[in-house]
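Design request, tokens follow.
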């Protein structure tokens, strides 16, 4: 399987919580550029090679058969903006005439800008981990404050250029204080709110509830709009040729 489809490592056939107001299919991309200790999709983000790519033919067959019941497609991870040839993947998916939403940590603003200019995504949900000064702690030392600030400021510029596309969210992990949340909220462009998500400790063995240990990160979190989602998706990871049976295609 050639890139970028080789990066598709999991699927949630039908979700009511990943894109509020829409019934969506979620495709999970492997790999991430951060090391957040509170990640719920740690294995997918850290060790994508543990999961077999889902065959393109099976995914497309599923989307064809379920098109009438879906309102959109969500691209999540991991961190989707790291996928080589992501534009081509989205262009392939766009042929199904469904709107596409991407989840991102916002550290690759040039990628999101490129996708928006090509009208390849209709929504972008971006995680604001916390105050810029805490990014090293919150990302397992994989993002420094200056780069986090520069990247997110560019994202905020895009939000002004493309109104209605961006949603900004934050998970209230134990390392964040009330003042941290307020500072994060102050970064947002005028007219935008910060969607708060309740932190639920990962179920994985040896997971860290604080941000002291350097661990890898994805964007999938458990919260009011994703309750239980990050665990349920695991049942579909690495299904490979059995995808059709897994999703009932």
């Amino acid at each position: 399987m050639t890139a970028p489809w080789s990066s598709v490592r999991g699927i949630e056939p039908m979700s009511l919580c990943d894109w509020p107001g829409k019934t969506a299919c979620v495709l999970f991309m492997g790999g991430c550029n951060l090391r957040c200790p509170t990640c719920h999709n740690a294995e997918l983000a850290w060790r994508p090679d543990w999961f077999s790519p889902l065959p393109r033919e099976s995914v497309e067959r599923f989307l064809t058969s379920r098109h009438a019941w879906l309102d959109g497609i969500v691209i999540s991870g991991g961190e989707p903006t790291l996928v080589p040839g992501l534009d081509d993947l989205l262009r392939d998916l766009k042929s199904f005439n469904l709107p596409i939403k991407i989840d991102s940590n916002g550290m690759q603003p040039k990628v999101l800008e490129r996708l928006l200019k090509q009208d390849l995504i209709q929504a972008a949900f971006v995680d604001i981990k916390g105050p810029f000064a805490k990014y090293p702690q919150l990302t397992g030392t994989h993002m420094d404050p200056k780069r986090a600030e520069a990247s997110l400021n560019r994202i905020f510029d895009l939000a002004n250029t493309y109104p209605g596309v961006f949603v900004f969210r934050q998970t209230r992990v134990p390392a964040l204080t009330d003042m941290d949340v307020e500072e994060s909220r102050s970064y947002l462009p005028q007219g935008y709110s910060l969607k708060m998500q309740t932190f639920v400790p990962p179920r994985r063995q040896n997971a860290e509830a604080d941000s002291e240990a350097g661990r890898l990160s994805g964007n999938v979190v458990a919260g009011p709009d994703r309750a239980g989602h990050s665990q349920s998706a695991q049942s579909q990871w690495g299904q490979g040729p059995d995808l059709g049976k897994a999703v009932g295609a």
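Comment from the thread starter after seeing the answer: thanks! Residues 145-161 form the longest helix (17 residues).
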